[in-house]
Design goal:
Radius of gyration: 24 Å
Strand content: under 5%
Number of strands: 2
Helix content: over 70%
Strand order of the largest sheet: 1-2
Structural class: mainly alpha
Largest sheet: 2 strands, antiparallel
Shape: globular
């Protein structure tokens, strides 16, 4: 392994990742200054959402200019970094330090919370390893996801491409982000790393929505952990499927909307717009889920208008420059691919014919009726014993043990809808159950949710792979489970036990060595934190030396880890 080459690759990757960080941090600090109070989970949600949107926006702009090369990307990242740093440094010092103060302290967390956070962190390390070492062998990833990225690199453009039939007309926001991350390398090394971000974002949004609905912290963490442990969720981290990212931004949009409804912070509306744009730009079915977000936004606007007045609501939303910037980002990341399709084919949906009441709005070669035949709602026969046997088998394989406590919690949420003593909790439960029914119906009507067109219109075990279309429903089921457990006063240790038992069933036994490493890392960090606290005065006088030593250790660890991971990835690729 060439150390110089590896160092160059990692340095380029670091520049790509770091580029939007100051701008995202400034947006977090700005949002904190507007809110009466802020929490760490909300700050992280704002940070990740904007980081993803900024990266995708940069990729689309340089692709539109036919400059989709590593040099142009690094220049763009440098400009973003300098602009964000200038904004961040101009902010008052208390605002800049707000993010640090919002980090939860270990002493304020209960043992159950620490244990659940440790479980999520451990599984996250396993997911990260799954995106670094093994090569991607998924059929769809090899058939068109990865080839499209290669073609973008060859043509230095994300739009100068016409082929692959309807697949060539899909929105590709997430592939743009993956292509940027993989750009410093000559293979698929780290190309799926953004999926780890989407995995974490989905869990964060489930926790946020549950807390916003009044669920207890431990039950919210447990429900989030259970969803992240579901096999179909973890499996999609190691592929180039975009369903996990789409579900994450759908839930993020809901969380931002609830935050704006509760606090009327303008930057929460900006986060909602950015999430909606990413949702629509990641997958074509995201348009339907975007309509769900739009419907919820209308309901929230009507409710807020009655409470604060329409004029006050409009003035609050339109006076923020970040809201207008978010609207522009929403149009870019959400409308880019559909505008391209409209220019190329005269149809924003590409080759799919759009008809309303017998009138053809947009012509196309693909008949919507043929697409409807691929849906689970059309193919599944509730009176067929064989269909139920196939469904039961794929549920056990792809949803497994975590589904049991999630389903039980969902049933308890239904019971919470009848609790007249808690009006707010009952309304929250009603809202989540309504969204569950909506997203469940959308899953049944999603094209190819029944089969992929190669099984002679039959229900087969391939149905399990299509469970990824139900990830928005699964995320909301986690929210409902947290509400149900809280409203029914389930003991915290029961929720923790459900997570541990589920993890024991679904986590690969070969990851025990990573558990040992994770435990040792936690012990080392805890000792370091304790040592730093005891020597706080010394750290004040020798801060520069400590920073230099820490930076050298971090760079050394990155080089060593990168070298090992790179070598293992290449060896696995040769064996594949």
């Amino acid at each position: 392994m060439n150390l110089v080459r590896l160092s160059t690759e990692l340095a380029s990757l670091a520049a790509i990742v770091i580029g939007p960080l100051p701008l995202a941090a400034w947006l977090v600090a700005r949002r904190q200054s507007q809110a009466a109070r802020s929490c760490f989970s909300q700050d992280v949600l704002v940070f990740i959402t904007w980081w993803c949107a900024i990266e995708v926006s940069l990729g689309l702009v340089i692709g539109l200019l036919n400059l989709f090369t590593l040099a142009a990307v690094l220049i763009g990242e440098m400009l973003l970094f300098l602009a964000g740093l200038a904004l961040f440094l101009r902010a008052p010092q208390p605002r800049r330090l707000g993010a640090v103060k919002s980090v939860p302290r270990m002493a304020s967390c209960t043992k159950a919370e620490v244990l659940l956070a440790g479980v999520i962190g451990f599984v996250g390390v396993v997911m990260l390893r799954a995106t670094i070492i093994p090569p991607i062998l998924d059929h769809d990833s090899l058939a068109y996801h990865l080839p499209i990225m290669v073609l973008w690199h060859q043509t230095a453009s994300v739009v100068d491409w016409d082929g692959w039939g309807q697949i060539g007309r899909y929105p590709f926001d997430w592939q743009v982000l993956c292509a940027l991350i993989a750009m410093p390398f000559e293979d698929d090394f780290l190309v799926a790393f953004p999926n780890v971000i989407a995995w974490g974002l989905m869990g964060l949004c489930i926790y946020r929505l549950a807390r916003q609905a009044g669920a207890a912290k431990v039950h919210s963490l447990a429900a989030s952990s259970l969803v992240l442990l579901v096999p179909i969720v973890r499996h999609n981290v190691g592929t180039m499927h975009v369903d996990l990212a789409m579900a994450a931004f759908f839930l993020a949009g809901l969380s931002f909307l609830v935050s704006y409804y509760e606090s009327r912070v303008p930057d929460d509306l900006a986060g909602f717009l950015v999430s909606a744009g990413m949702l629509v730009g990641i997958k074509m079915s995201g348009q339907v889920y975007g309509c769900v977000l739009a419907g919820m936004a209308i309901l929230a606007a009507v409710a807020l208008g009655r409470r604060v007045g329409t004029q006050g609501l409009v003035s609050t939303a339109l006076t923020s420059p970040v809201t207008w910037c978010a609207f522009g980002v929403c149009l870019l990341v959400g409308g880019f691919w559909y505008a391209r399709n409209l220019l190329l084919d005269g149809n924003p949906l590409g080759l799919v014919s759009v008809r309303v009441g017998g009138f053809t709005v947009f012509p196309g070669t693909m008949d919507p009726e043929d697409i409807r035949r691929t849906t689970l709602a059309h193919l599944f026969d509730p009176f067929s014993r064989s269909h139920w046997k196939v469904l039961a088998a794929v549920v056990v394989e792809h949803l497994n043990v975590p589904l049991v406590p999630l389903a039980l919690g969902g049933l308890l949420a239904l019971k919470a809808c009848l609790n007249r003593s808690d009006t707010r909790g009952r309304l929250a439960a009603f809202a989540v159950i309504g969204l569950l029914v909506t997203t469940g119906g959308l899953y049944l009507l999603t094209p190819y949710s029944g089969h992929n067109g190669e099984s002679q219109w039959r229900i087969t075990p391939y149905l399990g792979n299509e469970f990824r279309y139900a990830l928005p429903f699964l995320g909301l089921l986690g929210v409902a489970a947290a509400i149900g457990a809280t409203q029914s006063r389930i003991r915290e240790d029961v929720s923790v036990a459900a997570v541990l038992i589920s993890g024991a069933f679904v986590v690969d036994r070969g990851t025990v060595k990573y558990l040992i490493v994770a435990v040792l890392a936690v012990l080392a960090i805890s000792l370091l934190v304790r040592h730093v606290r005891r020597l706080g005065g010394v750290m004040t006088f020798h801060g520069t030396g400590v920073r230099i030593a820490g930076t050298c250790l971090l760079l050394g660890a990155l080089l060593a880890g990168g070298m090992i991971a790179r070598q293992e990835h290449r060896e696995d690729s040769k064996r594949a």
